[in-house]
Amino acid sequence: MTQRDVRRSGTRLTRRGRFLVTLLCLAALAGGGSLAWATWQDRTASTRRPPAAGAETDPGGAARTEPPGEVSSNPPSRERPDGLDKPDGSKVPAIGSGSFAAARITGSPVGTGTLRRYQVQVENGSGVSPAQAAAEIQAIVAHPQGWAKNGRGRFQLVSGRADFVIRIATPATADKLCAEAGLDTGGELNCETGRGVVVNLRRWLLGSPQFDGTPATYRHLIINHELGHALGLGHLGCPGPGKPAPVMMQQIKGLDGCRSNAWPYAANRTYLTGPTL
After folding, report:
1. Helix (H) or strand (E) holding 224
2. Straight-line distance from the first to the last Cα atom of the chain, in angstroms, rounded to the nearest whole number
3. pLDDT per residue over 51-107, tens digit each?
């Protein structure tokens, strides 16, 4: 209602009355603006999603054929978008593109027995070269203390059709790929899904705080542990204080008195085992 409306109604206003009406109109306008601002703030706040935590797990499964090429995945929102710190102060990307580039490299078969062909894929935007990662994994598979050199499998790096795929993925994408197999890796761990091996980028670049060795050495443990699952092996425990931890032990969860170890076999080709879990 305006002052003109009041005059038309036949009501006479004093100067003081007109002043009070003006104040009331201004207050109503201000109140409407405040309500609109508060409503916008509430609507904006409702779109923010707090991060969620996940439990640690490092499960296994059996390998099967996975078509090569680019794979798409939509990472979950629970990962921190600012990344994770590396020792040099730079960031490990927490969330990636969800698409993968395959290494275009084919190597010679290593080991004996049934041939298992594997392809290496790296998530786009992770900062890791697919060719370099594939060359490093090929060297891990061919290591004298590995599975292939000790009669536990025959493996070949290929660029085309493969029996299983080894993917290096950001924590968010790794969580999604592992979750599709019912596994919760909590932004931290690797897994073997039945569709191949998923390597968490953070573990690939940083290693593990539980592992007494460099990240490059820890990569041997990652690949050997997950290939062990692909070979049908389950988890093992520590065989005794001071002894080497089996590669099938979940060393990232603690060593229980064992020493860090990244290879299935000792230098003398003795299989490093422990109690079945």
Report:
1. helix 215-230
2. 80
3. 333 223 333 333 333 333 333 333 333 333 344 565 555 678 899 899 999 999 999
Q: What domains are defined for the chain?
A: 84-253 (3.40.390)
Could you give phi then psi for residue 274, rounded to 5 degrees?
Answer: -165, -175
Whole-number Å distance between alpha carbons of 147 and 165: 17
Query: Would you state the structure tokens that stand for residue 139, as one six-digit string?
Result: 């060297």
pLDDT tens digit string along 219-258?
999 999 988 988 899 999 999 999 999 999 999 999 999 9
Q: How far apart are CA 114 and CA 149, in angstroms?
A: 14
Q: Is the dihedral of CA 62, 68, 74, 76 positive or negative?
A: positive
Q: How many CA atoms lie within 13 A of 154 on its CB side?
A: 7
What torsion do the CA atoms of 168, 174, 177, 182 make, to the nearest 10 degrees? 130
Closest listed residue to residue 72, CA positions, set 98, 102, 95: 98
pTM summary value: 0.69
